[in-house]
Specification:
heterotrimer, A alpha/beta (388), B alpha+beta (156), C alpha/beta (597), B: 156 residues, alpha+beta, 2 domains, four-stranded mixed beta sheet, C: 597 residues, alpha/beta, Ubiquitin-like (UB roll), five-stranded mixed beta sheet, 18 helices, 33% helix
């Protein structure tokens, strides 16, 4: 990579002198409120895509008066184009455990769960081994917190936090009505912090290195760094930890194959940015936020196929309970097929765009609400490819 | 008691007799029997005191909790965008020809079921497939066929 | 816990409501109607149809009014541009998935989706038709319920009914995404699963996805057939609800008009199930006293208590599936409908000189499980199928409309005799607690020679809509032949709705409570809330129907089953005595264990 993209090494960094367990032991000696202040100060926002300030989430849950609370690590990484959590789980699981235990200490929870997607079952054996060691380590250190693993079984929507709770409770993974939010009533209807894998590692590292090093990275709205999953038409696909707030053109210069036509930022539910907008697109909460997925398409790719794939994905993976999402996804998919075949006029695409506006505000959860992102950004920028 | 009943009782014993155990119990059955038979579903309903329709409704929500008979080895080829771009169609075609089945079908000897899957989380190394719980990234048609060959020999 | 008041504005009108109130409820207080589909007053909130979305100022998303609690300072718009567009889209999407063949639909004119579509003037379909051809194949395996997936809008009201109200869970949600649907265990036909045929799902289905198996044409054919003598019986709860489907307000009794209409439809004799309700009390009351004697005096271990009523066929099938170990607790009495059929085709046929094979017995019932019941193989004690066709209250209303009868203008008419006489005790069979009350009115008097010690015979403790009711009556100063009951505290319990029945059964099984007699009705509120009653239903509607039933009772000349002169006559002329040989042959039955899963 020959450019000014700032590579960072926080997530995968191994400090020989201080293990994650040692970080944990050190951290739980501090007042919980101080840890929360550090997290708020660091500006860390959730790395799963939604970007809720982590410190606040912990604070709200800490403030709930309840004997039983839970910490859950959302390792249901299902967003197409995203694969960084798998790598994190594989390489630095102890940092995740430590983050969960710190959270448990802060909010007053005794149990933590890692919800690992079924597609990553091959990670289970090693993860369980490391977890057993870590649990034993915590016990030895007198830290009253135990982590368990729960597996998914192939349902993208379970990445939605309330659907994930339902799944853990042995039910269909159907998102719940909100409020109440997880900080009030999550798993087993108890106050729950649910954080993405990467977020938890950052919390460990912020506790380790202090908020300053983290805060120094990124921009005002997007503090810190983030792990990106880079795929598609790139000679160097893989996982990269980069500073947030970079302009997309710099990213493309670094990762593209010289013929980049568009970048899908944020996975199938994210936005498709065409070449002409690379210069003025910032990757971060002030621009286009992302859970880390960057899919690069070069000029040989049909954007119809890309959109078709996404819509097929959402049609199948919608939980099916709410009307805008269940029927809306099918309409979008069949709709572009009908336009392609000439059975509906090109103007029908505009009817469908209006439908996505409804889905965005009326669907029950983030899945249905975000289908319009890829749809509109692809239709708006590659309309001819959809029609002809 | 049938082997299924014994298995379900063991799983319920291990995971606890509560609704929260439903997923691990169903997962355990699929792990052992490759799919959830009517007998298995009824057994789970009885052991966890749930309605059969409820158990079935939950199982049918999850792609990996099959309720139709599957082969000993379940091959799931990722079909989502990057794997599509990198040639999943060729992989599926090659596997289909070699196994003489179409997507969704099971070989006569019940050794293989060929399925597609939504994003498996290996977009940088597509095309990719899962065989049971094992992942095989960076596939070529030849590699895919060799892997299947290994499973056919019961080496794996 | 006292609740805080929350101040908010809806369409710029200020209102203060209790904390925890939903936007939907708050809007209702201001007389703003927000359309709903998945919402139902009897069920928990789902928030899945999204038809009730409203705009909350400052929020990124629209809120589902049914599922969103109010908060301080909230400003809600129920009809903003955003809301209207979204709502219309949602109705259009539902219609895209819906087999909108409305003119041919059994629910034509009684469909909430149709109403909403009309309200929003949904014209040409904007969106593509997504109805799957396979979904158009109806499940007609059940004699009671027809399930048509092509009409289903996935609101899950049926699933919540089956689970929450009835504790049966024969229906569930299966699959996900575009394959999501409402189905049964492994998609088996309704007839093969634990469905009790209670039909409560029908009462709450907003569209034509769940309807009763209708026998209207069969009944017309019988009426037009000169070779057939068609008699009709009407269940207690029909007379207080039929009017609802014929433009008469909820809670108004239409007994006389109903009789009049039935005569106009051409039934040869219009008779009353209330007659056999009285007969049931004689048989069941005697059975109870006999069981008590065997248990308390003879210490007969084969006799089990508590005895449980057996009038409600949904309850019976529930018990056969869920608690086969308690089948011996069920009274062996047939339901009043089936007692009627057996009597009609034997005693009555003889009396009026009609051959049983030429007689057609039609029932008008508040129930769809009765359609299943009449087809049970045990129910052929006359040598023929005792009851030929069962129509719901709704189906009767349709026939009356088809016949062009102006129901509201009908003069009251009287039931034919015999098998038309009844008492107030029979009428109250239609409400939860009614069978219990009727049985107590008679049994207490048989044992003590005195009326039950309640003002005007109104045994208030067994009335009302509480899910499970318990009462005890101390039996004092008994007649010599009942001396073993002297001082006995008779403990009774009543449950309505099968989820409550389940709770009660668990109490019985665990030995936590010891009752002598239990009344169970499968439907919420008892038969007045039956699966065959006019739609809609709600706690409020059922309360009004109950009031109507009790006022009918109060106005009856005779209020106790044993005072029914026709009942006395049939024992004298035909049956001999309660639990006698003839009764055993015609009026009693047995049950069979069915698969629990």
């Amino acid at each position: 990579m020959e450019n000014n993209l700032k590579k960072v090494d926080i997530i995968f960094e191994i400090d020989e002198k201080q293990s994650p367990l040692a970080i944990l032991e050190k951290t739980v000696k501090r007042p919980a409120d101080e840890i929360i202040l550090d997290l708020i100060d660091s500006g860390l926002k959730g790395r799963g895509g939604a970007g809720f300030p982590t410190g606040l989430k912990w604070k709200f849950t800490r403030n709930e008066d309840n004997e039983v609370k839970y910490v859950i690590c959302n390792a249901d990484e299902g967003e197409p184009g995203t694969f960084k959590d798998r790598e994190i789980i594989d390489r630095v699981p102890e940092k995740i455990f430590a983050g969960m235990a710190i959270c448990g200490f802060v909010i007053g929870a005794k149990e933590g769960y890692i919800y690992l997607r079924g597609e990553y079952n091959f990670l289970l054996k090693n993860l369980q081994k490391k977890l057993d060691e870590f649990n034993a380590g915590m016990k030895k250190a007198g830290i009253e917190f135990t982590i368990y693993i729960k597996s998914g079984s192939g349902a993208y929507v379970c990445g939605e936090e309330s659907a994930l709770f339902e799944s853990m409770e042995g039910k269909r993974g159907e998102p719940r009505n909100k409020p109440p939010y997880p900080t009030v009533a999550g798993y087993n209807s108890k106050p729950t912090v649910i954080n993405n894998v990467e977020t938890l590692v950052y919390t460990t590292m912020i506790c380790h290195m202090g908020p300053e090093r983290f805060k120094a990275l990124g921009t005002k709205d997007s503090r810190g760094s983030k792990v990106f999953s880079v795929s598609g038409d790139t000679p160097i696909s893989g996982i990269y930890e980069l500073e947030l707030g970079m302009p997309l053109n710099e990213f493309v210069d670094g990762f593209g194959d010289g013929d980049t036509k568009a970048v899908q930022v944020g996975g199938a539910s994210g936005h498709c940015v065409p070449r002409k907008k690379f210069n003025d697109t910032i990757i971060g909460f002030e621009g286009i936020p992302t859970g880390g997925s960057m899919m690069i398409f070069n000029s040989t790719r049909s954007m119809y196929n890309v959109l078709h794939d996404y819509l097929e994905f959402f049609t199948e993976e919608s939980c099916g309970q709410c009307t805008p999402c269940r029927v809306g996804c099918q309409q979008l998919l069949k709709g572009i097929e009908a336009v392609k075949r000439g059975e509906r006029p090109p103007a029908y695409l505009d009817d469908l765009k209006k439908l996505t506006a409804t889905m965005k505000i009326a669907a029950k959860c983030g899945l249905g609400q975000s289908v319009g992102n890829p749809f509109n950004s692809i239709i708006d920028n590659f309309r001819e490819e959809i029609i002809y | 008691m049938s082997t299924t009943e014994v298995l379900v009782k063991e799983l319920v014993e291990k995971n606890g007799k509560t609704r929260n155990s439903l997923m691990p119990v169903l997962q355990g059955i699929v792990h052992n029997e490759h799919f959830l038979s009517e007998e298995a579903l009824l057994c789970v309903a009885r052991e966890l005191d749930l309605s059969a329709a409820d158990v079935y409704g939950t199982a049918s929500f999850y792609t990996f909790l099959d309720t139709v008979p599957r082969g000993k080895n379940i091959v799931r080829v990722c079909k989502t965008i990057t794997c599509h771009m990198k040639g999943k169609d060729e992989i599926i075609k090659a596997l289909g020809n070699a196994l003489k089945i179409k997507v969704g079908e099971t070989t006569n000897d019940k050794k293989f079921t060929l399925l597609t899957a939504n994003c498996l989380g290996w977009c940088h190394k597509g095309p990719v497939m899962l065989v049971n719980d094992d992942i095989y990234p960076d596939l070529t048609t030849q590699k895919a066929l060799e892997i299947i060959e290994e499973y056919a020999k019961d080496v794996k | 816990m006292s609740k805080y008041l929350v101040n908010l504005k809806i369409n710029n009108m200020p209102i203060a409501v209790e904390e925890g109130t939903t936007i939907l409820e708050a809007a209702k207080k201001l007389n703003f109607r927000i359309p709903t589909l998945c919402n139902h007053p009897d069920l928990t909130v789902a928030g899945n149809c999204r038809v009730c979305v409203v705009e909350v100022k400052g929020a990124r998303l629209l809120a589902a009014a049914c599922a969103t609690p109010v908060s301080e300072g909230m400003e809600v718009l129920t009809n903003s541009e955003k809301v209207r567009i979204a709502r219309k889209h949602i109705v259009e999407l539902l219609l895209a998935e819906h087999n909108a063949d409305c003119t041919k639909c059994f629910k034509n004119g009684h469909c909430e989706l149709q109403d909403l579509s009309g309200e929003y003037r949904i014209g040409d379909h904007v969106f593509l038709d997504l109805v799957k051809p396979a979904s158009k194949i109806q499940d007609i395996s059940s004699p009671s319920i027809v399930k048509d997936d092509s009409k289903c809008i996935r609101c899950q009201r049926c699933v919540r009914t089956c689970t929450e109200l009835q504790g049966v869970s024969a229906l569930g949600v299966v699959n996900k995404g575009d394959h999501q649907r409402i189905s049964t265990f492994l998609n088996k036909p309704l007839h093969e699963v634990v469905c009790t045929n209670c039909g409560q799902c029908i009462n709450r289905c907003p569209t034509g996805a769940l309807t009763e198996r209708n026998y209207i044409e069969e009944v017309w054919n019988a009426l037009y057939n000169p070779a057939k003598f068609v008699v009709v019986q009407t269940a207690p709860a029909t007379r207080i609800a039929l009017g609802e489907d014929l433009g008469i307000q909820v809670g108004e009794r239409v007994t006389g008009k109903m009789v009049s209409a039935l005569k106009k439809l051409g039934f040869n004799k219009v008779l009353d199930t209330d007659f056999t309700a009285d007969l049931t009390i004689m048989e069941e009351g005697t059975e109870l006293l006999t069981r008590l004697k065997k248990a308390l005096v003879d210490k007969d271990e084969k006799v089990v208590l508590p005895m449980m009523t057996s009038c409600s066929p949904g309850w019976i099938k529930f018990q056969e599936h869920m608690y086969p170990e308690l089948l011996d607790n069920l009274s062996t009495c047939k339901s009043p409908q089936q007692m009627f059929g057996a009597i009609a085709k034997t005693y009555y046929a003889d009396k009026i000189n009609i051959k049983a094979q030429d007689m057609i017995v039609v029932s008008i019932m508040p129930c769809v499980a009765k359609k299943f019941e009449c087809e049970r193989p045990e129910m052929r004690d006359s040598g023929y199928q005792d009851v030929d066709y069962v129509l719901t209250t709704r189906e009767l209303a349709m026939m009356i409309k088809q016949a062009g009868i102006d129901f509201d203008k009908l003069e009251d008419d009287h039931y034919d005799s015999i098998l038309g006489e009844s008492t107030g005790a029979a009428v109250i069979f239609g409400a939860t607690g009614g069978v219990m009350e009727a049985a107590l009115r008679t049994a207490y008097e048989i044992v003590t020679g005195r009326e039950v010690p309640f003002t005007n015979l109104n045994i208030k403790p067994v009335r009302g809509m509480e899910g499970i009711k318990e009462a005890s009556i101390k039996i004092k100063s008994v007649k010599p032949e009942w001396s073993f009951l002297e001082g006995v505290e008779l403990n009774v319990a009543i449950a309505h709705g099968l989820a409550n029945a389940r709770k009660l059964m668990e109490k019985v099984k665990s030995g936590e409570a010891s009752y002598h007699f239990i009344e169970i009705m499968g439907c919420p509120g008892g038969c007045l809330g039956g699966g065959g009653q006019p739609i809609p239903t709600s706690p409020e509607i059922r309360k009004k129907r109950a009031e109507a039933i009790y006022s009918e009772d109060t106005e009856m000349v005779l209020r106790k089953s044993h005072e029914n002169p026709e009942v006395a006559e049939i024992y004298r002329e035909f049956l001999g005595e309660p639990l006698g040989h003839k009764s055993h042959d015609l009026l009693h039955t047995h049950y069979k264990a069915r698969k629990r899963y």
